[in-house]
Amino acid sequence: MGRGTSRAVLRRGLVFGLRAGAIPAGTGAVLWVMVMTTRFLAGPGGSTLENPVSAVVVVLGSLVVGVLIGVVIGAVLACAPLRMVSSRPLRALVCFVLAGALAFGEMVVVGAADGGPALLLATLLAVPVVGAVAAARSEDIAAARIGPEG
Fold it and tell me: Which of 41, 44, 106, 142 counts the most CB atoms within 10 A of its CB?
């Protein structure tokens, strides 16, 4: 395994992480715009996202968690033995566990922003989804190592 191969896997992991983090970050940004528009038109509604600091925590925190997920998955796939990376079930399982465990960081972000119990529950229910998406994308991330025959 060459240095370029490792960098390619890390880069693919980072791109995956940015995409994974952009979904909750984008959702948080859209919610913040909606809450602020509603507040401007109808007055304060008591939403946590009326506080700009909470909105920034949700958006930037979600991006950080996504990047962390992608970098860790990329690093593991770049450094793991080729035998493990070449095995689809094993690679998918490792990515599922890593992404699912790291997705709990989003719970910390939502808790820090005081998102409330409904948002915490929705975030908790999204953890296996993040793991499943990472497992499904694991072949794309590791493609530089496993080659076209993998």
Answer: 142
- Give dist(CA 10, CA 3) in Å, integer: 11
Q: In this structure, are residues 62 and 31 in contact, taking their beta carbons and an 8 Å threshold?
A: no
pTM to 2 decimal places: 0.84
Query: CA-CA distance, 110 to 55, in Å (whole number)?
Result: 10
For the record, the structure tokens of 13 come out as 């992991």
pLDDT over 70 for what percent of the chain?
A: 95
d(C-alpha 114, C-alpha 46), whole Å = 12
d(CA 21, CA 77): 19
Segments in the chain below pLDDT 70:
1-3, 49, 148-150
